[in-house]
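Quick one: structure for this chain?
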Amino acid sequence: MKTPFLQKIAEAFHREYGNQVSDMCFVFPSRRAGLFFQKYLAEQAGKPVFSPKVETIASFYESLSPLTVEDRLGLLFRLYRCFKKLNPDEKFDNFVWLGETILSDFNDVDNHLVPAKGLFSNIQSLKQLDDDIQLEQEQVEAIQRFWTYEPTNPEEHHHQQKYFGLWSRLYDLYTEFNKDLEANSLTYSGHLHRTVVENDLKELPYTQVVFVGFSAMSEADIELFKKLKAIGKADFYWDYESSIIQDENNRASRFYENSRSFPSKLTIEANAGNPKIHCVNLSSDIGQVKYTYEILKNLPKVDMETAVVLADENLLVPMLSSIPKTDASGNEIALNVTMSYPLKNSTILNLLDCCMSMQRDYNNDGFWFKQVLAVLQHTHMQCTMLKSEADKLAKELIKENISRIPAERFEGTPLDLFFERQTPQDLCSYLLKIINWLFENSSNTNSWDREFMLQSEREIRRIQSLLQANTDVVVEMHTLQRLLGSLLQSAETAFKGEPLGGLQVMGMLETRCLDFSKLIICSFNEGTFPKSSTPQSLIPYELRKPFHLPTSEFQDAIFAYHFYHLLQRSDEVWLIYNSNSEGVKTGEESRYIKQLRLLYPNDFEISDEQVTFSTGKPNEINLAVKKDGQVMKQLYDYLNNKTLSASSLKTWMECQLRFYYQYLLKIKQPEELEEYINKSQMGNIVHYALQQIYQPFAEKNLSVTRQALERIKPKIKDYLQEAIAKEYGDHQLKGFNLLIYKLMLQLIEKVIDKDLEQTPFAFIAAERPIDSDKVQLATGDPHCPTVRFSGQIDRIDCTNDRWRICDYKTGKADEKPEFKKLFDRKNANKVKEYFQLLLYIWAYDKECDTIAEGHIYRVSQVKSKNNSTLVVERPDRDTLKNFESQLLDEIKRMLHPFDPDNPDDPDNFFLPTAQKEPCSYCNYKLMCNKWSKK
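Got it. Here's what it folds into:
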């Protein structure tokens, strides 16, 4: 690798000043840059020496002022007090979002030394500004355009007037806010910078203040540099060696002018070069992690000159778990993580957010069931002594199907801690009790989780202290949750490691001033690098630009400098991006890859690579289940103890693999508590209500007449309510469930109306079970089980000497197929209703020697113009024999064991469906994942 920039600085100062370097102060953009500089300086000395003072720019400002920087939440409460003096009726809940935006704008205004009085003035008061407020002509014109803009519609005019009303008070708020802070010896970063440069600098205890590696600077930074330069106390060193960074057509050069305004006293030899660049296209984030593993594993040496830069912080944990143990030379790879892990990605914050949401949405009927279950089934709850209690209660709630659970339900139970009703004033104490209890009682909790708990506790205690100090500020539950969420999500937990040794895993900002021989940048996508989001601001672009406040162009220049700076001394760079455009991701490579190709094709050796990794999606071969001895035993056990129902046969026809999961492995879908009556419950309710209506006719051998049905119609509601109580529970129906109730009532009424058209008729049976004789199949295996077929016919009736087997359906209709397509797997999903009816007709004939027609009462359509219910016309004996023959052949295929002499025979396996549609509603689609990203 070419000599790192910081090493050259250390060499130059040691050579020029020797031990006198210890009397100087070196200021860097980041703490890590200072650590690397101290390392290089110690290597130059070759013996123990006094180190110079090393500061970040932030800590250097703080050393120049007696004021203390207040945290953001403390500032927010103080700003609200000042705002309320100007707007007495303003509630804190309405102010929070606005306050955060105002704080950000005030910080920008001060950091860039903008005359606040001039910026926040309106057109009428421009002439009344103090003489000391000098505005440029461009700024005056911008303010005039801002205030004279005429909206095109009344709604826009209303919002404009509201906005201008706020804007006209911002200078008074700014003044009041800063007075309050100074009275309490407090400040924020922008205000601190402004007060430092606008006042006389205190005497510095250093012979020189050396500023190293800066690029983007605020107006306050520039003014500070000027003041120190004027008194002969400052020296400056800029990392602009590459001709690309100096190219005026490149946004990275935006800050190059600073190097001319603040020249260096010592000469630093330039040694910038152009690395070999690999642009790598992968289709997943996990693929990026795997590819990084392969790169590191094959490097001959992985040390502190190698860095993995993560543009997306969400890759940190999977990346850490995928770093190889050794490099290609067999040397152990040490690891140093300079990134902090955001608390927002931790499981403890997820649990706390679940608890806060549960408390926020509590009403007089209790907690919402989904939020209660989220707490009971949370990972942290499952790692405590309360796991069995939580699981038991979750099962009870699902069984009872209650959408709101009163807080009293938990009183006196070990779970009471989590489900005590809280007021906003008690919420922080409630969360602290939960954290402390989990810290003491969780098993299998790793060190990360424990650190996250401690970090969460510190942040919550901070906001608790603010609430206790501001008891007159009324904070509603939803606002408090937002404040806590914002505070916790912005908090970070630092990793421990050796900062000056091993592979460096870092974010882009941590790379400032640093150089690496081998550089891997992940998530190098447009929108991630550079980031596409812009901070909220009340100051529009039209005013930001003439007042020299940061704009999107300023941010782009910062990203451009960081990127091109990293290329200056690297030998080899991998730019890895995710080409998958799923969700909010565009799948587009970063603009900097395009710039390298279009603007600098002769400066770099650039290669494009498209890499494919298997990320766990199984192919069809892997999905197939081989019918070996163990699997055949499972199949025999099933057939010996169970019957083949219409449902199981339809499943077999649609997807053999689903049949294997559901009936042989007996993998059940977890029970869930439903807030509303679902489709399955709705079908069961309608079926049961109709059974109760018609069953008395069958039991008493009565004919169904028009008069009888007319007498029943007023009682349909009673039958329906009885069916709902049986299936869904005795709950008061309201909201969406009330709409479903009315829909089910209409469906039943349609069936009755349809039957009125064909009275009189004989009702033979409702919910009639059928069970065939055992069938012995000629498979050649003496142990082959006999097979029985069973089912339950919704309704059997007889009208005009025509026997009818009827099925009630609440869903959409299948197409009516030709008989020859009945056992064609490509059509299995489309003919399942026809298949089921024919199976019932065949089985009923076997049992009663009576051939019936097959009808479907599609209850949502029985009163439509095409209201025929006939689906299967009365078949003849030959048709039924043909059906039986093909059905038994299908069962023989099911019982076909693996044949080693013919391994490619599809009957050797339980195969997944070849059709996509059945997978859309399959309960096992996440296990199979066959169609994922195809």
